[in-house]
Amino acid sequence: MVSPLVFAFLFSWAAVGLVAAEKSDFCLSEIVKSDERIRSHGYPAESHEVITEDGYELTLFRIPYSHKLKNQNERRPPVLLQHGLFSNSDCFLTSGPDNSLAYLLADAGYDVWLGNARGNIYSRANGQISLNSHKFWHFDWHEIGTIDVAAMIDYILEETDFPKVHYAGHSQGTTVYLVLLSERPEYNDKIATGHLLAPCAFFEHGTSFVFNALGPLVGTPGGIWNQLLVDTELIPHNNLVNRLVDNGCHLSESICKNAFVMFANGGYENANASSMLVLIETHPAGSSSNQGIHYLQLWESHEFRQYDWGTKKNIEIYGQELPPEYDLSKITAQTHSYSSHNDALCGPEDVDTLVSRFTHLTEDHRVPVQSFNHLDFIIAKNMKELINDPIIERINKYEGR
Ligand SMILES: *[C@@H]1O[C@H](CO)[C@@H](O)[C@H](O)[C@H]1NC(C)=O
């Protein structure tokens, strides 16, 4: 059970976030950015800008090679890592060179690219639309998949002159992969191997209190809450929100873990507390309310389908009353799923549904540790052995290494 205190904490966090969004007092120069973080560990780092067809300016960070291997002149197949909701490229870095996936891949001889979805702290500009306009926030993970990830993949292939890229995504980073490859199947040929950590597509059995608390309010289209919340920034990164979380975490580890309770069924046995503290420096990272609303719609409908605008607008946009489903049978790229028992958002039964619809899924891996939860895929003390090493092994196998 979730205590009322945690409820109060989370709601005030969200409320303060929504109010503070208007002020937008966040300043990028005050944080340690991914490229600086990478350099501080001795690795080379680059920052690239990708402009999407609809004007969003996305930042891709890159670890081009490993200073330990001095392999800058060798063949280095590219890998794209894509973060989850409320997150950014730092999520693949915060456990440091001995444990986080980005560094381990660089040390295994790969050219590592870290994506950032529109709306997060590293991708908050659009040449045509002001950040303070509702129009800027008129998107959800459908666009992140079909436009942002597609643009990042094309950019990487162009820059590196490779025909395919390896992909690993966490949480929403898996949703956008499924969306892209089912909606634009021609991108299957651009993927060497795909690795889905805590894959999120179906939410029928989601046990997180977030679903029960917010699902009925905003999960169905047309309601007042929906009207109020659509096209706004959701839990932005700003000084006020950040200070609340940061102080909470320094005050007590349990408050900190409770702030993340929505991702786990209560337990944080595997979490690396130091890594969590680093993570919080740049999280929550900013996203559109529509991303959250769209997920809640999936929880309500039990389907993996496009955003529900209500019957009238659906007919206008999609030519049918209900939003079209994502056809997972169109995904043919070699894809591995990694999921865990204690995931309160995308738990084992919903992964069963995903696997049953994902006809060409290569392998369905279930983490053998019962307490492993949704966030453990990026911050657990034991994620190297359980997740990251196996990913690299499979990528190596593909590359004949
Ligand atoms: C835990 O996180 C810290 C901070 O990034 C890192 O230095 C350490 O190596 C990590 N340990 C494990 C086992 O993940």
From TrEMBL:
Catalytic-site annotation from UniProt: S171 (nucleophile), D343 (charge relay system), H374 (charge relay system)
Residue ranges of domain Partial AB-hydrolase lipase in the record: 36-95
Name used for this protein in its record: Lipase
GO terms of biological process kind: lipid catabolic process
Range of residues in the leader sequence: 1-21
PANTHER family referenced in this protein's UniProt entry, alphabetically: LYSOSOMAL ACID LIPASE-RELATED
Keyword Glycoprotein: yes
Species this chain originates from: Drosophila guanche
Family membership: Belongs to the AB hydrolase superfamily. Lipase family.
A Gene Ontology molecular function term of the record: hydrolase activity, acting on ester bonds
